[in-house]
Amino acid sequence: MEKRTIAEPFKIKVVEPIKMTSRAQREEAIKKAGYNTFLLNSKDVYIDLLTDSGTTAMSDNQWAGMMLGDEAYAGSVNFYNLEAAVRELYGFKYVVPTHQGRGAENILSKITIKPGDWVPGNMYFTTTRAHQEMNGASFADVIIDEAHDSQADHPFKGNIDLNKFQSLIDRVGAENIPYICVAVTVNLAGGQPVSMQNLREVSALAHKHNIKVMFDATRCVENAYFIREREEGYQEKSIAAIVKEMFSYGDGATMSGKKDCLVNIGGFLALNDEKLYQKATELVVVFEGMPSYGGLAGRDMEAMARGMYESVDFHYIQHRIGQVRYLGEKLEKAGVPIVKPIGGHAVFLDARQFLPHIPQDQFPAQMLAAQLYLESGVRSMERGIISAGRAKDGNHHYPKLELVRLTIPRRVYTYAHMDVVAESVIELYQKRDSIKGLEMVYEPPVLRFFTARFEPLA
Fold first, then answer.
1. Cα–Cα separations (whole angstroms), residue 297 to 114, 277, 308, 402
2. Would you say residue 17 lies in a domain?
3. Most exposed of 51, 196, 378, 441 (fewest Cβ within 10 Å)?
């Protein structure tokens, strides 16, 4: 029997018009933006695949909750609803709201890291590593080797290599490793998941050495879906049950609610250790706000609490993953080089293979993202040498993966939009040999991919 189409598990109640610009308008816009898609105005974008962070379409239930915002300065009822949701769905005891995920990363780094420490993780993430390094730590990548190979077809490319983790412990000492950061899923590897078996093994090794396990929980529901689909013994389990088991192997988590909590702003730090929680509440009042709102309005916390329950609905996440796969499979069928297997939140173009004639020092992924916008009005983003930044010696980090991320917002676009994106990428691939590199003409000292500016090479 032919595989049935999975339609959107929702009806459209409100629409936001979008329009296509002319090539001349896009030429002016990308030049004004310094060939950095982050600096484009959204009004000049046709289909926006820059990020899935905060770009979710909220449900009628969430919007109804927004009207029930208790905007008390302290003790808002919406905080207690959020706290109850975190405890029920994720299993952590304590919750500190933050304005978004990087607020939680900042607080976690400050309360756990001392200068000279090391923080291992399954591949870096930009803001996470920045907070760790700004507080005196060095990052150590302990992900399996397959994660750095775009064509390796491993079901759990986000897994941590236990031998790499143990080697780091032996080399620097467990006392100098405050925690291991486990991202579920791994963004810069292509949205790749971590297996439950690996989480159990990492937890056992870390706790044997009194090292805490801290999750980057941003896309935990997507990770749970992959476990259900690919790992033996989980096919009959609910998404909620899988999520809760995942977090049972950790001591805390940073959460950007702008992804798998289905909201446009918000996040939190979740912890089990009461002493760490006390330290976190002392810092949140300095950087964010009261421990019961942490930089958020009551209505935002209510929307996040309701979104958490919606996110573990199987039909929602099945469609979410299916829509990403739909785009990826169309590109793969046309011969466009992408990261395999197709991940949870995005399709990643392999810019090294797409533009093999452009050396990494000339920023092929950055130029590919700019050219895709120029040709079609589709906005994507670079995830390669620009995102990797510079080492302490001032030289570029040279990641093995040089990628362009086509990130799918949640509940926003239809399959027809994915068709348009696929056609645009395929057309660009057919004239890839004419694309030249870039030079960087402005570079900020931290998180340069957000605001760096470029000019085309002659």
1. 32, 21, 17, 38
2. no
3. 441
* Span 33-55, pLDDT tens digits: 999 999 999 999 999 999 999 99
Do 325 and 304 fall into the same domain? Answer: no
Residues 366 and 444 reside in one and the same domain: yes
Low-confidence ranges of the chain (pLDDT < 50): none
Predicted pLDDT at 6: 81
**69 and 177 together in one domain:** yes
Q: Quick one: 105 and 166 in the same domain?
A: yes
Give the Cα separation of 90 and 407 in Å (integer): 25
**Helices of type H across 67-189:** 77-89, 101-112, 126-134, 162-172
The number of domains in the chain is 2
Tens of pLDDT, residues 350-364:
999 999 999 999 999
| Same domain? 151 vs 243 | yes
Contact 81, 254 (CB under 8 A): no
Instruction: Beginning with the edge strand found earlier in the chain, give each strand of the sheet holding 381-383 in spatial order.
Output: 346-350, 403-407, 381-383
Q: State pLDDT tens for residues 378-390.
A: 999 999 999 999 9
For the segment 126-137, what is each residue's pLDDT rounded down to a tens digit? 889 999 999 999
Q: Looking at the chain, how many residues does it have?
A: 458
